[in-house]
Amino acid sequence: MKMEKKLNDLFNISIKPVDVVDVKEGKSEDKDDFTVARETLRDMITKNEDVINDLVSIAKQSEHPRAFEVVAELVKAQTGLAKELMTLHKIKKDVDGEQEPSKIGTQNNIVFAGSTADLMKMISAERAKIIDSK
To answer: Comparing 21-25, 32-36, 59-63, which segment has the lowest mean pLDDT?
Structure first.
């Protein structure tokens, strides 16, 4: 311990104590992993944007085909990162078990259980609800 203190004093650095985190099993661990993966991808996307801007200006100044090729490859990688981020969100939904509410489209062959008089009353009531826009 003394040696570490001497080295810290010599290089004028301070080492922060590491917090020990109790990792819980199950969904909280998944959420932590998702958060780390999401932050990493977003950080890479942000850094790539800066690099792309710099490389584009370099490519324009040099007008060298290889410079434009490098820019194109980095843009392709940037697109891949964005897709990975969206895939990560989809995977999270699948893991969490979230489902989008099902939408009912056009229904055919709907069965009415009642008499014709009841059906006419329902139709008349629906027609009365419709407001004439003329």
So the answer is: 21-25
For residue 94, give Cα distances in angstroms to 29, 90, 100, 125.
Answer: 15, 6, 11, 44
Alpha carbon of 91 to those of 29, 36, 81, 97: distances in Å? 15, 14, 15, 10
- For residues 118 and 13, which has the higher predicted lDDT (pLDDT)? 118
Q: What is the CATH number of the domain that holds 49?
A: 1.10.287.1060
CA distance 109 to 104: 14
Q: Which pLDDT belongs to residue 108?
A: 73
65-90: pLDDT as tens digits: 898 999 999 999 999 999 998 998 88
Q: Residue written as tokens 């290889």?
A: 66
Identify whether 99 is part of a domain: no
Q: How many domains does the chain divide into?
A: 1
pTM exceeds 0.90 for this model: no
**Is 118 contained in some domain?**
no
The whole domain housing 46 covers: 26-92
